[in-house]
Design goal:
The protein is of the alpha/beta class. The strands form 2 sheets. Strands 2-1-3-5-6-4 form a 6-stranded mixed beta sheet, sandwiched between helices. The protein has helices at 22-33, 47-57, 81-86, 105-114, 131-142, 154-164, 176-179, 227-234, 242-258, 264-277; strands at 8-14, 37-43, 61-64, 78-79, 91-95, 98-102, 123-127, 146-150, 168-171, 185-188, 215-218, 238-241. It binds NADP nicotinamide-adenine-dinucleotide phosphate. The site of NADP nicotinamide-adenine-dinucleotide phosphate (NAP) has 26 residues, from helix 4, helix 5 and helix 9.
Length: 278
Amino acid sequence: MQINGSTQLIGFFGSTYKTSKMYAMYNAAIKALGLNCIYIPFCVVDLQKAVEGVRNLGVAAIGVTIPYKVEIIKYLDELDSNAARIGAVNVVINRDGRLLGCNTDGEGAIQALKEKVPVTGRDVCVLGAGGAARAIAFALCDEGCNVTILNRTERAAQDLAQDIGENARAGGFAMLPEVLGDDTIIINTTPVGMSGSGQERLSLVPANLLKPGMAVMDIVTNPRETTLIADAVGKGCAVVYGYRMLLWQGVNKFELYTGVKPPVAIMEQAMEDSAKAG
Ligand code: NAP
């Protein structure tokens, strides 16, 4: 690409960019479309100063990840209604100096699910009640699903269920056997099963509770095949991998960043190539 005086900068704020390969996906899309912009990840030390930088340098947009998705809100001018109800932001758009926060996680999860199973009106059990769970639970609610949120800290599950309203109920993991029906969709939104978590081999769902009519999604991306997913495959459930949500939330972000229809196949290929490169 040719950098010139009109090149727009899209940044990414996390505490380490070394674990994210999303820049490969976005820059491949930018190149394919011939857009005059560049995507660069930043390892942010002081978030307030970094957001001041966005304003003062005229950065066009920012992706946001752990640990800044909630903290960044206090430095923004506005949230869209979805980010406001979730209480977390994964995209910031600079609109003539006014910073607007949005969140594409929930929509990305629904798109990943819909690649494999019908979603509308289904019974869904969400494990976890953190930022990703909130985004996904609200999106499920928009699809008319009946959502049960189970969390280690039950209070957080109850708060989320209350925020969602009448289509949601809450509890602890001990409720799993009574919550799971023959065709429930289960979504793990906790880091249990994630590489480096110290719980790589664990799953919150005992394998004997899984049935062939269920769909099981694990939003953990590393490894792709978590113990929950492996157990679900073994029991004949439909499975949805976390990297599919990562792809779709990124596709949706790209559209917000650029205002251009994303080249999904190119983004998907770049994601696969960078995963293979390790
Ligand atoms: P978060 O806000 O910190 O929430 C973490 C949730 O996991 C909380 O509900 C927490 O329960 C629960 N939890 C943590 N450790 C646990 C354990 N040992 N046993 C049981 N529950 C535990 O984090 P987040 O932003 O929601 O992200 C959660 C995971 O989703 C991360 O692994 C992240 O990488 C992944 N993620 C994936 C995508 C994707 O596109 N695939 C997108 C976003 C996030 P308590 O309330 O009890 O602490």
